Amino acid sequence: MTSLLTCKDFLRELNEFLDPGSTDPAARQELEKHVNECPNCWVVVDTTKKTLKVFKGMQASEVPSRIKDRLMAALERKMASRKPGGCGGGDTHAS
Amino acid sequence: MPEPPSFDEAPLVLRAKAGDDTAFADLVKHYERRIFRLAKNITQNDEDAEDVLQESFMKSYENLDRFQGNSKFYTWLVRIAVNEALMKLRKRKSDKSVSLDEQLDTGEDTLVREIAVWDDDPEQKYSQEELRSILDNAVSSLEPIYSTVFQLRDVDELSTEETAEVLGISVPAVKSRLLRARLQLREKLTRFFQRKGDDVFAYL
Q: Looking at chain A, which residue has its C-alpha nearest residue B172?
């Protein structure tokens, strides 16, 4: 018997299909059946998997050094002001 | 470049809570990139993102003794950053950005237009720098409600429940936004990653 799911039904369940363990076995079997019979949905699954893979390996861009310096300076002022006897001008430089 | 997999925040958090500022500075250095990216995704504005970055770490430092350790420090930090970023959005008078708790449709128009096969390792076609620019542009072209969910779930690998909690939205909303985000990104990346010879515009 061919799959009763339409492509639209399948796409609505795409996340469940991509994140294993989140669907019950019978529903999963239906999804598997559809993707094996429908070349377009197969391409969507394959390219979405590749999309996730390529993003998973991506580290966020470096924060510009001007912004990092400003952040660290502000934090160091705050840290210094919290030390006993601190007056806001301490030298808690993080190494 | 992949994130170093072995980073364990817990010892640093314990030391920071005990008053070790160097440990807190190490946490800042480890998470600043991700918090800045998140802030840019939500505010869509570098200047606001810079303020959000700074305010988030200042607030987390000030309130560190209230952090109970029931969740990851990073999740707690994200919650602070999301609140700061949303406050920025609310302050903008002519704000055309969508608030993160806005109700969405149920995705009836689930986007699939491009059906083209990709290379097996599509990222190999580009240098690291080119790839980063392609991926950054793709994500920043999404609406904040999609890019934020995508970053938290698929890049930072928070759970669906954690993502819902930090964004103050429901679990079904996280799921439907994630689906839309994934499909939109797939669509945008197709022109860069499709296998040679498969003309994506052939159907036009």
A: A15
Q: What is the 3-state secondary structure (H, E, C) of B80-136?
A: HHHHHHHHHHHHCCCCCCCCCCCCCCCCCCCCCCCCCCECCCHHHHCCHHHHHHHHH
User: Is the CB of A75 less than 8 angstroms away from the CB of B25?
Assistant: yes
Q: Say whether B22 and A55 touch across the interface (CB within 8 A).
A: no
Residue type, B119: D
Q: Indicate whether A40 and A17 sit together in one domain.
A: yes
CATH placement of domain B9-91: 1.10.1740.10
Task: Indicate the residue of B25, B115, B116 with minimum beta-carbon distance to A94.
Answer: B25
Q: Are B169 and B101 in contact (CB under 8 A)?
A: yes
Let me know if residue A40 belongs to a domain.
yes
Mean pLDDT value across chain A? 84
CB within 8 Å: A58 and B62: no
At residue A55, the pLDDT reads: 93
Q: What is the pLDDT of residues B36-84, one digit of tens each?
A: 999 999 998 899 999 999 999 999 999 999 998 888 999 999 999 999 9
Domain that holds residue A71: 64-89
Is domain B122-193 classified as CATH 1.10.10.10? yes
Q: Which residues of chain B fall below pLDDT 70? A: 1-5, 93-110, 197-204
Examine the domain organization and report whether A47 and A82 are in the same domain: no
> ipTM of this predicted complex?
0.82
Co-location of A46 and A69 in the same domain:
no
Nearest partner of B139 among A11, A62, A51, judged by Cα:
A51
Distance CA B153, CA B171 (A): 12
Please name the residues between 5 and 64 in chain A that touch chain B, using a CB distance below 8 Å: 8, 11-12, 14-15, 18, 40, 43-44, 46-48, 50-52, 54-63
B46-62 and B73-91 helices cross at what angle (nearest 10)?
130
